[in-house]
Amino acid sequence: MSTLTVIDHPLVKHKLTILRDVATPFPTFRRVLRETTWLLAYETTRHLRVESGTVETPLEEMTAHSLPNPAPCLISILRAGNGLVDGLMDVMPEAAVGHLGLVRNPKTLLPEEYYCKLPSEIEKRQVILADPMLATGGSTIAAIDRLREKGVRNLVFLSLLAAPEGVEALQSAHPDVPIFTGALDRELNEKGYILPGLGDAGDRIYGTE
Ligand code: URA
């Protein structure tokens, strides 16, 4: 069973309250989401490998550590995933970034891919897959299926909020993928929205309806 880590931190809690508030305008939402992602990134990147090398300080040479080559990779599940990837890129500018677009087929209700652009040598990289809302888990599972097909082995998933239904679905489909989230909410409603949640993450980030 994959691990679920709820990143329990006073600043994450405080910022999540701002993000949940229906009165928060989208420019504030965007900024606070970015700040929250910096805090979530600290835990989510704890497993990353570093390589030893040397660095010359102004005083002497020392052994030091850097991210490996090829660098880790961030994958956004479009479009709301970009809201997390923006913050992850701030703290990991060396990371390569891929994008996966998935849309639910209204007949089958299954996620179908409409866009996929992934970095080279993805099978050698440590991958962080990001989507702010782990709701039913359908698009996350489809995204991981795709990444597995491409040979990705080392993978974690980051969301801002998660519903128990999505966590369960993801854990049973991909028991080896660790899940990181800012909060575990109560449940999904009949339309697949997380309760209490924050509404549609994409709309809240981009000011759309
Ligand atoms: N996607 C969202 O943006 N919000 C939800 O509550 C569920 C899925």
From TrEMBL:
Record protein name field: Uracil phosphoribosyltransferase
Family annotation (HAMAP family): Upp_B
Catalytic activity: UMP + diphosphate = 5-phospho-alpha-D-ribose 1-diphosphate + uracil
Pathways involved: Pyrimidine metabolism; UMP biosynthesis via salvage pathway; UMP from uracil: step 1/1
Superkingdom in the source lineage: Bacteria
NCBIfam families xrefs: PRK00129.1 (NF001097), upp (TIGR01091)
GO cellular component entries: cytoplasm
Cofactor names: Mg(2+)
Organism, scientific name: Roseibacillus persicicus
Residues where 5-phospho-alpha-D-ribose 1-diphosphate binds: R79, R104, D131, P132, M133, L134, A135, T136, G137, G138, S139, D200
Binding site for uracil: I194, G199, D200, A201
Function as written in the Swiss-Prot or TrEMBL entry: Catalyzes the conversion of uracil and 5-phospho-alpha-D-ribose 1-diphosphate (PRPP) to UMP and diphosphate.
GO BP annotations, alphabetical order: UMP salvage; uracil salvage
Regulation: Allosterically activated by GTP.
Family: Belongs to the UPRTase family.
Cofactor binding remark: Binds 1 Mg(2+) ion per subunit. The magnesium is bound as Mg-PRPP.
EC number: 2.4.2.9
Alphabetical list of Pfam families matching this protein: UPRTase
Keywords attached to this entry: Allosteric enzyme, Glycosyltransferase, GTP-binding, Magnesium, Nucleotide-binding, Transferase
